Amino acid sequence: MTSPSYIGRFAPSPSGPLHAGSLVAAMASYLDARAHDGKWLLRIEDIDEARTAPGATDAIMQCLGAFGMRWDGGATFQSRRKALYREALERLGAHAYACGCSRREIADSRLGIARDGAAVYPGTCRQGLAPGRTARAIRMRTPDAGSPDDCIRFEDRWVGPVTQYLALQVGDFVLKRADGFWAYQMAVVVDDADQGVTHVVRGADLLDSTGRQIYLQRMLHLTTPRYMHVPVVSSASGEKLSKQTGAQALDPLRAEPALIAAASFLGISVRQVNSVDDFWRQAIAAWRNRFVEGRPG
Ligand code: GLU
After folding, report:
1. Which CATH number goes with the domain that contains 90?
2. Does residue 241 line the site of ligand 1, with CB under 6 A?
3. pLDDT at site 110
4. From CA 44, how far away is CA 64, in angstroms rounded?
5. Closest ligand 1 atom to 10 CA
6. pTM for this entry
7. Residue 186 within any structural domain of the chain
8. What is 198-246 written as a DSSP string?
9. 56: Cβ below 6 Å to ligand 1?
10. Do the Cβ atoms of 18 and 211 come closer than 8 Å?
11. Contact yes or no for 35/226 (Cβ under 8 A)
12. pLDDT at 241
């Protein structure tokens, strides 16, 4: 029986097949949903069409199937939901503005670098485009430094209390990119709300994005889900494991050892398993025991 009070999701970008790092994120969201008797949705985040690898969506779906992770309902695709993002932008009204700055100009302003590596926007186009400049991107106007709305606080279910000051640590962020694609922050906020997602469980590399997402939810009058950011697997050189850092694609024929290793990374110990289904029975019970029973949310 599924509880309407819990809707979770796994939201991979189809830039390549699943690897040991993406398996950890998929597993944590799946375990949390099943341990809550909730729903687990699959959303393919193919909004950045330039980074979408041919065949990656099919490979991801096949791998999830082989690894015993069954999603509820049909998968959704961000590339088919652009009308929703357009409508949200309209609702933002004057909170959003056109920006004509190039990446170079923003980097040259040296206002600072946000934790995710993007340069903090110096606010050049906040009061309107200077004569002769053309709009490139659309940005979200963040609150003035020191104003009460500027400080975003939330309680992460893994990390604990998190505080972010938007003006100084992030700056006015992009909603629609200069290449015409919708930005991840916009698409994810609209989709999580539209799909009724109540619990977001994902990798800690996205912790820094959560302040922006909560701010957008507030400006769009949307409910903020509960967040849990689980540790990310690193490559030998200490970077997040990804296709770029040499991650191997998971082998759908060798699910059990990969599942056991991912669970152990999350602190869930499952030793002897007879089958993939047996693995999930044990892992869900262990996750429920650790994160659900007797704990709020
Ligand atoms: N599409 C993002 C990624 O693959 C995840 C987005 C999310 O979980 O919010 O890194």
Report:
1. 3.90.800.10
2. no
3. 67
4. 13
5. 8
6. 0.94
7. no
8. -EEEEEGGGHHHHHHHHHHHHHTT-PPPEEEEE---B-TTSSBP-TTTT
9. no
10. no
11. no
12. 84
